[in-house]
Specification:
Helices cover about 50% and strands about 15% of the residues. It has about 270 residues and is an alpha/beta fold. It has one domain (about 10-235): Rossmann fold. Strand 4 (about 85-90), helix 4 and strand 5 form a beta-alpha-beta unit. The chain is globular and about 60 Å long. Bound molecules: NADP nicotinamide-adenine-dinucleotide phosphate (NAP).
Length: about 270
Amino acid sequence: MTRILQGKRAILTGASGGIGQALTQELVDAGARLVLASRNTDKLDALAADLREKATHLIIVPTDITSPEDRNRLIDTAVATLGGIDLLINNAGIGSWGHFANSTEDICRTVMEVNFFAPVELTRLAMPYLSNGNQPSVVNVTSMCGRKGMPAWPEYSASKFALVGISEAWRAEFARFDVDVITIVPGMTNSGFQDRWLRKDGRAKLNFDEGMSPRFLAKKIIEAIKKNRSEVIVGSEAKRMLLFNRFFPRLTDWLIARKVKSLYKD
Ligand SMILES: NC(=O)c1ccc[n+]([C@@H]2O[C@H](COP(=O)([O-])OP(=O)(O)OC[C@H]3O[C@@H](n4cnc5c(N)ncnc54)[C@H](OP(=O)(O)O)[C@@H]3O)[C@@H](O)[C@H]2O)c1
């Protein structure tokens, strides 16, 4: 099946962020009709102002996806202005970088709320409309940490594993309604993500400047939507790591543990 994006009615969460902005641009270029959500109204306004002339339909709905009222308002506004929903892209997310031993329950719950419970409940609200949609799909932006738990990313890995897991279960369940589920598994992306982490005290050297560009990832996401892929890993280091881990899981764990021990020996 080839999905045509022209005229599709789409909700995108996390539109104010690096990947969300690049995705918005690509969706506008593809002719989708858009409802953009995130909390930062200034950033959403600026994005909308840049693209409004080019866009077929673009509105912003300031939304904290962890708020049930905001989620309801987002879906209601999308349905009222677009007449339905064909595409829900769950892209909003938050990171926290540091070891579990000195993390907190609050961080764990916040990461799970934003990265798992919120997209899940948003999808629950969207399903009645998606099931009447045109080539409908749910797109979940997860992470390579959702396929391989990484040290200093305990809460984040758990939240993304949960999102990957529910996406897999939904894929078969939602087939009843002809709603596709597309899982995006990105590696490191130079989006500014690290500026917004809840914690930043991991010791490994992370070089986000060398990650892929949000534009590259956004193009891969659009391709996955058009080609109706089930799951797509994006980024060379993510592909390498997940492939190595698949064939040599014990060796991978040993190498990672050795690295952690050397980083935390004093
Ligand atoms: N960058 C990477 O290396 C990387 C790698 C793998 C996966 N990812 C995933 O890609 C997605 C996009 O991340 P990014 O790299 O573009 O990071 P980003 O620039 O920090 O963007 C995150 C987006 O999520 C939104 N958001 C966070 N909490 C929210 C909340 N409670 N309600 C509504 N929106 C919320 C932020 O908007 P507001 O602050 O305006 O609300 C922002 O638009 C995330 O799911 C992330 O986990 C990123």
